[in-house]
Amino acid sequence: MEILSNNRNCPPEVVCFHCQQFVEKLLKALLTLNNTEAPKTHDLRRLIELAKAFVPELIPLSEMSDKLTFHGVETRYPGDSYPVSRTDMDEIIAISEEFGDILLKKLSL
């Protein structure tokens, strides 16, 4: 997501999709590390519900996760969603970085 977003011609939808995937995979890794089966879902709020027992710092981010979840599903299929602006993309990057700051520390072994 960082490499793509640094290119002014990048498609913001793609960056937002990768932001959602980044957070989803971190949450699923956290669950796996804590012997909890990760469900087959892209719904980050659902994953946070399972992960908050291990990382309560995620609770305040739960509502923001809906913005990321949208980009994990809706923006994958052209014509199914609205165009994503650079401003939207920057917001999604910031949200995913917030999750990353918390989760990457917890996953450091």
Topology, element by element:
Blueprint: H1 2-5, H2 12-33, H3 44-51, H4 62-73, H5 86-107
Helix pairs in contact: 2-3, 2-4, 2-5, 3-4
Structure explained in plain terms:
The protein is about 60% helix and about 0% strand. It is mainly alpha-helical and about 110 residues long. The chain has one domain. Helix 2 (about 10-35) packs parallel to helix 3 and helix 3 (about 45-50) packs across helix 4 (about 60-75). The longest helix is centred in the N-terminal third of the chain and has 22 residues, at about 10-35. The radius of gyration is 14 Å and the shape is globular. It starts with a helix and ends with a helix. About 30% of the residues are buried.
Q: Total number of helical segments?
A: 5
Overall pLDDT confidence: 90
Spell out the helices and strands N to C.
HHHHH
The tally of structural domains comes to: 1
Task: Tell me the strand percentage band.
Answer: under 5%
Number of strands: 0
Short recap of the structure:
By secondary structure, the chain is mostly helical.
What key phrases describe this protein's structure?
single chain; 109 residues; mainly alpha; 62% helix; globular
